[in-house]
Specification:
By secondary structure, the chain is mainly alpha-helical. The protein contains 6 helices and 3 strands; from the N terminus they run H-E-E-H-E-H-H-H-H. The protein has one domain: Glutaredoxin, CATH 3.40.30.10. Helix 3 packs antiparallel against helix 4, helix 3 packs across helix 6 and helix 5 crosses helix 6. Belongs to the thioredoxin family. DsbA subfamily.
Length: 194
């Protein structure tokens, strides 16, 4: 092949290669590959479809932005969020009326997690004004992950006696009377997160 033929062939080859690459990129974007480990891709979820009615929250009920926080009162990472990240969100966004934070239950660390979630529902229902102080006290009292001591009904009842404005006996009676209803709400929260 002579040099003139190579000079004519090179631009054509570059254009063909470019079209091939562009076509591959477009085709791949329309047909994303399945994960290599064989797991299915997570479905797309619109956060506006998450049902938050009745869940505890802080901030203005009509705030233009809603942040949803799923947590477990036995989870050390949830505790870290509560004490290291949430205060900045409250100061910069909740206190200014821009955001409300909705707290949803995601129980996964044993029976103490479930007990705490049931009490969470009751305190919100009976004492919404004291709810955030109660929530903070719950995370402050958290011990090792899982069923290690704090978080069962007896320890939460004891904690509730120390929180101003909360009648521990009334909360305990409410949890006993509404366990099934509260458990359904806790299960619904967890299902929303999955």
């Amino acid at each position: 092949m002579n040099t003139n033929e190579n000079n004519k062939f090179l631009p054509v080859a570059v254009i063909v290669a470019g079209l091939f690459i562009a076509g591959a990129v477009v085709w791949n974007g329309q047909n994303p590959a399945a994960p290599s480990d064989g797991t299915a891709q997570a479905p797309k979820v619109n956060v506006k479809d998450v049902k938050i009615d009745g869940d505890p929250f802080i901030g203005r009920a009509d705030a233009p932005i809603t942040i949803i926080s799923w947590s477990d009162f036995q989870c050390p990472y949830c505790k870290k969020f509560e004490f290291e990240t949430l205060p900045g969100i409250i100061e910069n966004y909740v206190d200014t009326g821009k955001v409300k934070v909705v707290f949803m239950d995601f129980t996964f660390l044993g029976s103490d997690s479930i007990d705490a979630a049931l009490y969470n529902r009751s305190v919100w229902k009976l004492y919404p004004e004291q709810y955030f102080a109660w929530r903070t006290a719950m995370f402050t009292a958290q011990d090792d992950e899982g069923d290690q001591g704090f978080g069962d009904a007896a320890s939460i009842d004891k904690l509730n006696t120390a929180i101003s404005g909360i009648d521990a006996e009334k909360v305990s009676a409410d949890v006993k009377a509404n366990t099934n209803a509260y458990q359904k709400e806790v299960n619904a929260d967890k299902a929303e997160a999955q």
